[in-house]
């Protein structure tokens, strides 16, 4: 039997407001990392989601945010940008009374907005994780306002580190670019997987073989990218024999404007972050 992970029963309670996909990934990472589940309080209005969080992870669940934040020193806002203003307004009195460390993972929503909606003068960390957090293989960009002290920054970093790597971003204006690169980024790789699989089937491969070939290629390439210490361009060069098959494919990608298209896609996602902020102010 493997040893149980170290437990931290004395850890100060942490509250999640919103118990959807990203919250589940982050809470799962915390529990796997050894945080006592009964120190995690999750507010989630959908009963079925609430019950499955409690059953799967052993965390304490509540129907309302006000109940979940009671006694918690860190509040993680994991609701959609559309409802963030209303959710914050409902907690403003409690925020002013208890001055929690606020962590928001909502795309686009700015620290100034969060402070304003919470009644002013809050220590806020804006974080942008991504779904591989579910496997502990995520990456999160983090930006803190000046009201967050070193302990608060360390606490926020530890929280997100349970989901994977963390990167501090000094300029909050760049958080939408983080969203466009890594927050939305897993979907770009999934799209590539779909396209490779479809193309393989179009070349005559059986669907099951096409999926295995495409997915394992992406996994192997991702591991080489992260484990070899080599630059992506160098790894690509080693696959590309002169006048070989890879060269034929890469020339086709380049002629089709692949790099420009990727840049345009990330720019569109980045712009949408700003639009979400303005639309839900
Ligand atoms: N899904 C992703 O890949 C990523 C999402 N995000 C951000 O995370 C946030 C949540 O996204 P998801 O987890 O994907 O959405 P989701 O829809 O799975 O989860 C949001 C949850 O909030 C709950 N909720 C709604 N109103 C509430 C309220 N008043 N109080 C408490 N909970 C309430 C909903 O019932 C839902 O379960 C969004 O702001 C999104 O921008 C950030 C990084 C990546
Ligand atoms: O698509 C979205 O708006 C969210 C934020 C990053 C990933 N999913």
Structure overview:
By secondary structure, this protein is of the alpha/beta class. The chain folds into 2 domains: 162 residues, NAD(P)-binding Rossmann-like Domain (Rossmann fold, 3-Layer(aba) Sandwich), CATH 3.40.50; 93 residues, Orthogonal Bundle (ProC C-terminal domain-like fold), CATH 1.10.3730. It contains 12 helices and 8 strands. The chain has an 8-stranded mixed β-sheet with strand order 3-2-1-4-5-6-7-8, sandwiched between helices. Helix 6 links the parallel strand 7 and strand 8. Helix 7 packs across helix 12. Bound molecules: 1,4-dihydronicotinamide adenine dinucleotide (NAI) and (2S)-3,4-dihydro-2H-pyrrole-2-carboxylic acid. (2S)-3,4-dihydro-2H-pyrrole-2-carboxylic acid binds next to helix 7.
Topology (SSEs and partners):
Layout (H helix, E strand, L loop, with lengths): L13 E4 L3 H12 L7 E4 L3 H11 L2 E3 L2 H5 L4 E4 L3 H18 L2 E4 L6 H7 L5 E6 L9 E7 L5 H12 L2 E5 L6 H9 L1 H18 L4 H21 L4 H8 L5 H11 L2 H22 L2
Parallel strand pairs: 1-2, 1-4, 2-3, 4-5, 5-6, 7-8
Antiparallel strand pairs: 6-7
Helix pairs in contact: 7-12, 8-9
The structure holds 1,4-dihydronicotinamide adenine dinucleotide and (2S)-3,4-dihydro-2H-pyrrole-2-carboxylic acid (A1CAB).
């Amino acid at each position: 039997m493997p040893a149980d992970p170290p437990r931290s029963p004395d850890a100060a309670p942490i509250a999640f407001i919103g118990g959807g996909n990203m919250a589940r990934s982050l809470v799962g990472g915390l529990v796997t990392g050894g945080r006592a589940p009964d120190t995690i309080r999750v507010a989630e209005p959908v009963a079925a989601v609430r019950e499955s969080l409690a059953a799967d992870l052993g965390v304490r669940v509540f129907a309302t945010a006000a109940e979940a934040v009671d006694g918690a020193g860190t509040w993680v806002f994991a609701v959609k940008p559309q409802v963030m203003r209303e959710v914050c307004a409902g907690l403003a009195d409690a925020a002013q009374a208890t001055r929690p460390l606020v962590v928001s993972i909502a795309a686009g929503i700015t620290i100034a907005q969060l402070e304003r909606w919470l009644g002013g003068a809050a220590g806020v960390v804006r974080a942008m994780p991504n779904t591989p957090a579910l496997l502990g293989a995520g990456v999160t960009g983090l930006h803190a306002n000046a009201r967050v002290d070193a302990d608060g920054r360390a606490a926020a970093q530890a929280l997100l580190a349970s989901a994977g790597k963390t990167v501090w971003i000094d300029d909050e204006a760049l958080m939408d670019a983080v969203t466009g690169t890594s927050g939305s980024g897993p979907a770009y790789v999934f799209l590539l997987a779909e396209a490779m699989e479809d193309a393989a089937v179009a070349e005559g491969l059986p669907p099951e073989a096409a999926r295995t070939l495409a997915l394992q290629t992406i996994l192997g390439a991702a591991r080489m990218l992260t484990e070899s210490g080599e630059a992506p361009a160098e790894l690509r060069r080693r696959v590309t024999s002169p006048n070989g098959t890879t060269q034929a494919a890469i020339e086709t990608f380049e002629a089709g404007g692949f790099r420009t298209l990727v840049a345009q896609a990330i720019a569109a996602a980045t712009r949408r972050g700003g639009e979400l902020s303005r639309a839900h102010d």
